[in-house]
Design goal:
By secondary structure, the chain is mainly beta. 8% of the residues lie in helices and 39% in strands.
Amino acid sequence: MRILIALIVLATLAPAAGWKELYNGKDTTGWKMTGPGKFVIDGGLLKTEGGMGLLYYEGAKFGNSTIKVVFKTTGKSDNSGIYIRMPEAPRDPWYGVHNGYEVQIDAGGDDWHSTGAIYSLSKVTMHNQKPAGQWNVMEIQLKGQATMVKLNGKLVNTFRGDQPVPERKQWFEPVRGPRPDAGYIGIQNHDGRSTVYFKSISVKQ
């Protein structure tokens, strides 16, 4: 009987095995902010506030891993993003756009700028963000130069760093070019009108 109970407990814990939580739910220990915007702690959640900003994890670079982010928006036009593959610690809030990749959060964007898109480089195959106020789970798998994005359990984007991409047309669109297999990760505070909450940021190597 005891063995059976132990097996049930292990089976219950198995799905969480291997995940490392990077946000402690209390403060931004291990993270660093750059830019005029900021993230505040609101009921144990990371909340965007102010203007453009980038909060990045200082502890390690990540490659050949899966990054899982749990977030919710407060309105259809709320804008944010998750940065991956940044080769160096970012010096300014635009560093992640032009030197890494931004996985978009924006329910109101088109296919190239919607939640799950690699901002202006790789479009989503479907729109699968939940309505404002509901939690979303995004999983970003990094495998060499390949990036796969799942949103609420559905694969919405597959991108390789060497695949053809649209021509750059605006100054705020990312500079085209290769990114490293591994890099720093971060989350974006886009503007003072958008309010996005983050509940969990975890990584599985």
